[in-house]
Amino acid sequence: MSVGFWQVVLILLIVLIIFGAGKLPTVMGDLAKGVRNFKAGMKDEDGNAAASKAPALEQRAATEPVAKNDGPAVKG
User: Fold this and answer.
1) DSSP 8-state code for residue 65
2) What angle, 0 to 180 degrees and rounded to 10, lies between the N-to-C axes of helices 53-63 and 5-51?
3) How far apart are CA 44 and CA 38, in angstroms?
4) Which region ranges are annotated with the description Disordered (predicted)?
5) In angstroms, what CA-CA distances link 26 with 6, 8, 45?
6) 16 CB contacts (<8 Å, ≥6 apart)?
7) pLDDT tens readout for residues 8-64
8) Staple 23 to which of 13, 19, 30, 33, CB 3.0 to 4.6 Å?
9) pTM
C-alpha cells in the first residue's frame, strides 16, 4: 500500500490544524531528529552485531587474575 500525494496533503493539513502554524516548524524538526536518531541507531546496531564478540573477550581478559611471574627461580 503506497501513500499518494493527496493523502500526504491531508495529513499535513490535519497536523497544521492540530498544532498550529507557530509550532509546526518545531514539530517537524523534532520529527526529523527522531528519524535521524532511528537511522543512526539502526546503523550502530548493524555495526555492533559484527563486533559484539571482541569486547566480550577483552572484558573477560581484563577481569581474569593475572599470574605474577618474576622470572626463573635462581638458587645460589
Assistant:
1) P
2) 40
3) 10
4) 49-76
5) 23, 19, 28
6) 24
7) 899 888 888 888 888 878 888 998 999 999 999 988 877 766 555 555 555 555 555
8) 19
9) 0.42
